[in-house]
Write a structure and sequence with these properties.
This protein is mostly helical and 526 residues long. The protein has 19 helices and no strands. The radius of gyration is 23 Å and the shape is globular.
Length: 526
């Protein structure tokens, strides 16, 4: 008997999450090492600016560009068979390799010009020279991660999720190991070396993973392939969207690079906390749902596609709405527990918790955006989300320009919250006119029930926080480990109590998604 698509997506998501949790644990260790040795000082600002700006931009461009490959590959395999579909992948991979290699070599040669154009660092100062050196060290990782993203997509086409997820875990393990070993000698440059080593290792792992497909992948390429022609029509809108989105990110970093010391690092620490939750939950769901969305789109089953999409979206909201409320109330103890040690002092906590507030509020929108983007790509519609993205980028930049003087680095987090919320709302309304049965009335009722459950949970967390503050007092004689244990106990009580109240309220309100998740948990135990 064929399993429902929703159940298959949930099962695949759990598989990925096991490795994602390991990867994020290592990622947290990496951030904790940086925070311990560099705090929110100039070196931390410079490294996090270089990685989150230039290097991440060069990594995300190929990752986003190859996204439309999957639905094209699925269609080609159904129409022309396995061999021709893999020939298309081989041609695409060769073009990607040539393009990325050329791009990376050119960027390494012009690193000084890139840093000068995208930052407000003094071109004669040590921070500028460190940014140039870090950029050159880390640029090869953009090539490796671009090819890794392509290899991941190939495996996802075959519904293989475990090995790609483990590849990301391996990447993080190597980054942390190299950082710990070399930090005392190289400083923040050790992290750059680790990033290159980790990206090369995870790419090699995936190449080994589909070695049985190499004879198909390395068939003589054909650059006049009909699927490549189809891909060429899908890529330009995505490329435009990437350039605009990354241009927005670079503008954010340009603004923050001219702010006081510590603002860049604290903004990136806050963003990394929010991103962790997205990567652990929403990102795996998007990964697993994408090939199923593509299958449904290729079968032109709009009713089933709409039902699957809405089920996934509601589950995302069910998960992230209470998380957002909880983090807003607990953001200070969370930041203290994760980072406050070594050179990351109480002032660093204040700097990080302030933008974390806006990122926390926006978590639900960030999660739902991933699902909607995958669905549009499965429909082979890359233009609509890009146009919406351009409009929202204008909104984002406008918010930063208006508020950056009064809110400082918080303005960037606020801009992300507003622009992403607008984006997911518009994407939903545009789908309503194209696909029947987008379940508007059901979604409204669901939204009201979730809001009520999250609000009740919020009151419970607030009172639990006051209670645990008395139950677990801070003593001046406490060691760093003792204070961390106290924070962990306080958060443990608040989180456990909040989950209990939210789930109980959701069940009392008969929110369908609560039953789905609880049933899956019970099933996984047997």
């Amino acid at each position: 008997m064929k399993k429902p698509v929703g159940e298959l997506i949930l099962k695949g998501t759990i598989t990925i999450q096991v490795f994602m949790i390991l990867a994020k644990i290592m990622g947290f260790l990496q951030k904790m090492v940086i925070a311990f040795f560099a705090g929110t000082g100039a070196e931390a600002d410079t490294y996090l600016w270089a990685y989150s700006g230039l290097i991440f931009t060069f990594m995300v461009i190929p990752q986003q560009l190859v996204a439309p490959v999957l639905p094209v590959f699925v269609s080609r395999r159904k129409s022309d068979g396995e061999r021709e579909a893999w020939r298309f992948l081989g041609s695409t991979g060769l073009l990607l390799t040539i393009g990325m290699l050329t791009f990376v070599l050119a960027a390494m040669w012009g690193a000084e010009h890139l840093v000068r154009a995208t930052s407000q660092f003094n071109s004669t100062g040590s921070q500028f020279h460190l940014a140039v050196a870090l950029t050159r060290i880390m640029l090869p990782s953009a090539l490796f991660m671009g090819l890794f993203s392509f290899a991941v997509l190939i495996m996802h086409a075959d519904k293989r999720f475990a090995l790609p997820a483990f590849g990301e875990t391996l990447n993080r393990i190597i980054i942390v190991a190299v950082t710990v070993i070399l930090f005392s000698t190289l400083g923040v440059k050790a992290i750059g070396v680790g990033i290159v080593a980790g990206s090369a290792a995870c790419l090699f792992l995936l190449l080994l993973g589909f070695r049985n497909k190499w004879p198909l992948l390395f068939v003589r390429p054909s650059f006049h392939d009909s699927s490549l022609s189809q891909l060429r029509k899908l890529v330009p809108p995505i490329l435009l969207g990437i350039l605009i989105a990354q241009g927005r990110s670079m503008l954010d970093l340009w603004f923050v690079s001219g702010m006081a010391e510590g603002k860049t690092a604290s903004l990136m620490y806050a963003k990394s906390l929010a991103d962790t939750l997205i990567l652990l939950i929403a990102f795996p769901v998007g990964i697993v749902a994408y090939p199923y969305f593509s299958d449904l789109a290729s079968e032109k089953d709009k009713h089933e596609a709409a039902q699957t999409l809405m089920n996934v979206v509601r589950i995302m909201i069910f998960i992230f709405a209470p998380i957002s409320v909880g983090i807003v109330l607990l953001r200070f103890p969370i930041v203290r527990l994760v980072f406050e040690r070594g050179k990351f002092i109480s002032d660093s906590v204040e700097l990080t918790a302030s933008p974390f507030l806006f990122y926390a509020i926006g978590l639900t929108a960030f999660a739902v955006e991933i699902v909607f983007m995958r669905f549009y790509f499965a429909l082979k519609d890359t233009l609509t989300p890009i146009i919406v993205g351009i409009v929202c980028t204008v909104i984002h930049i406008s918010v930063v320009i208006i508020f950056h003087e009064t809110l400082s680095h918080q303005s960037i987090a606020l801009a992300a919250l507003i622009s992403k919320s607008v984006k997911v709302t518009v994407l939903y309304w545009l789908l309503k006119s194209r696909i029947p049965n987008m379940q508007f009335a059901k979604n409204v009722v669901f939204g009201l029930k979730i809001s009520a459950a999250a609000a009740i949970m919020g009151f419970a967390v607030y009172f639990l926080r006051q209670y645990t503050g008395v139950l677990f007092p801070i003593m001046s004689s406490m060691s760093s480990i003792g204070k961390s244990a106290r924070l962990a106990c306080q958060l443990g009580v608040c989180v456990s109590g909040g989950i209990l109240v939210f789930v109980t309220t959701a069940c009392a309100l008969r929110i369908e998604e609560a039953g789905v998740i609880l049933a899956r948990i019970r099933k996984s135990r047997h």
